[in-house]
Here is the input.
Amino acid sequence: MRKRATECNRGFSLFEMLTILLIISLIAAMSVPALIPTLQSKSLTAAGDQFEQTLKNARQLALAEDVVVDFEIVGLDRASGRGLQFEGYRVWKWLPNGERRQVDKVQWLEGAFVFSQDHSTLITDGAAEQETGSLPGLDESVEIVRFSIFPNGETNLPERAGGDNWHVTICALPQGGELPPNFIAFRINQTNAHVIGYRPR
Here is the structure.
């Protein structure tokens, strides 16, 4: 009787353990591709939420402190060879003494997302001020697209033909100018700086 009890409690053999690990690995390998779109979608949502909130905060700052606020979208040509990509944004405010002060450091879109140049009228249509500048700690020059929000909530963006609003689009790096299926487009009202985000899914 003792012998049988010992045999029942001997546990798994090395072969059985390796078989279980192999099965778990196969299941995990099959599950990862299905999870990637979900993870990318969550990352895109987080990047879009941060951008939208920063723009709303910029408008609120202009109203609350009765100052002109500049909102900038920043592009740079990284060493990756992808060419100029707009990936960051920052906020400035004008003080009563005429000094222009940066409100916060540049915020970069996380998750390898960019502002699509081909699908962002704010960047392509030349309505906002555009200039070449520099950023502390970066050797590369940066391209800056800027528009201002005034203390009454209005912007310096001109009206678009047909009553359309200005917009910017956040997405993964487009391939051949084609917009990926998952993106967020933000409509910016030039009259009151209100921003609304849209996404296909």
The mean pLDDT is 84. Helices lie at 2-8, 14-65, 121-124.
